[in-house]
TrEMBL record:
Keyword set includes Glycoprotein: no
InterPro entries, alphabetized: Aldolase_TIM, ThiamineP_synth_sf, ThiamineP_synth_TenI
Signal peptide positions (record): none
GO function terms (MF aspect): thiamine-phosphate diphosphorylase activity
EC assignment: 2.5.1.3
Entry protein name: Thiamine phosphate synthase
Pathway listed: Cofactor biosynthesis; thiamine diphosphate biosynthesis
Organism: Aurantimonas aggregata
Phylogenetic lineage: Bacteria, Pseudomonadati, Pseudomonadota, Alphaproteobacteria, Hyphomicrobiales
Keyword Transferase in annotation: yes
CDD domains given in the database record: TMP_TenI
Enzyme class: transferase
GO biological process terms, semicolon-separated: thiamine biosynthetic process
Length: 217
């Protein structure tokens, strides 16, 4: 048995959620099984609309024992009492500034680092995690090969945790788990059908359990 084996945990990303479905889908998803955190994405909303969405979602996420992480909007994160901030765009200076201002009080992570060199540079700023993938880019059933390669490389050599983006199918979390990433993110796979969000989270956790059993055998 590999004693270093880590059971990945699920991260939800709200990108495809409509305002009308947000509460029902999120409650169902959080009731479906273990969720480490939820990344709340503006997904084109203006500041006021995003504020309303965050005010709705953050309390229920926190009540479920997950971390509520706001994408890019530090003022919104402060107003709603979020647990963290996710910095997009691969901007190392912006990531470093956010870490300086808000860590360790808030979780700070980032995405958009497309090369190994960029990822290592970002890692030197000591965020809480790096995210491999792009919000809203889970367009294929399978996880993007480049994201898997980056996560596997990172998990093998760097202690800093990473999140890898899975695909549009919930079954893709199995392949993502093989990278050794501490966290696997899903978005469309859970929220495309709000009525099935809980079942999708349950399925993801079952696949993680199967992965652990197969690796331990």
């Amino acid at each position: 048995m590999n004693e270093d084996l880590i059971r990945p945990r699920l991260v939800l990303i709200t990108t495809p959620l409509s305002d009308a479905d947000a509460e029902t889908a999120m409650r169902a998803a959080l009731a479906g099984g273990d969720v480490a955190s939820v990344i709340i994405d503006p997904a084109g909303r203006d500041d006021a609309a995003f504020q309303r969405l965050a005010e709705l979602l953050v309390p229920m996420i926190q009540e479920a024992g997950a971390a509520a992480i706001i994408v890019d909007d530090t003022r919104c994160a402060g107003r709603v009492g979020a647990d963290g901030i996710h910095v997009t765009g691969g901007d190392i200076a912006a990531l470093a500034e956010t870490i300086e201002r808000f860590a360790p009080k808030l979780i700070v992570g980032g995405s958009g680092f497309e090369t190994r060199h960029e990822a290592l540079e970002a890692g030197e700023k000591l965020p809480d995690y790096l995210f491999f993938g792009r919000l809203g880019a889970d367009l294929a059933d399978e996880a993007h090969e480049k994201n898997l390669e980056m996560a596997e490389w990172w998990a093998d050599i760097v202690e800093l945790p990473c999140i890898v983006m899975a695909g549009r199918s919930i079954e893709s979390v199995a392949e993502a788990a093989l990278t050794g990433a501490e966290f696997v993110a899903v978005s469309t796979a859970v929220f495309a059908d709000p009525q099935a969000a809980g079942a999708a989270v349950a399925r993801a956790n079952a696949l993680f359990d199967e992965y652990m059993e197969s690796e331990a055998a």
